[in-house]
Amino acid sequence: MSEPETNDGISSPIMGIDRLIHEPARFSIMANLYVVEEADFLFLSRRIGLTKGNLSAHMRKLEEGGYIEVRKGFMGRRPHT
Fold this sequence. Notes:
Oligomer: single chain
CATH superfamily: Winged helix-like DNA-binding domain superfamily/Winged helix DNA-binding domain
Low-confidence stretches: none
Strand order of the largest sheet: 1-2
Structural class: mainly alpha
Mean pLDDT: 84
Radius of gyration: 16 Å
Protein name: Winged helix DNA-binding domain-containing protein
CATH architecture: Orthogonal Bundle
Shape: elongated
Number of strands: 2
Number of domains: 1
């Protein structure tokens, strides 16, 4: 398998990085999920230190990319993600 080429024709392994998961916040989400395999939204928000809005946006991108599965439901009367 050959390395991706830069504009000057030189092969570079850095060109093969998937920017979707290597953005720092999304990489942190993936690293945390790798360790625990499954986590709820509140755990990730506290662990990573992102606001709920930012975490939601990053998780949506990871889900659209097929990297994570988001399940939503209720615990009692409260929503649980």
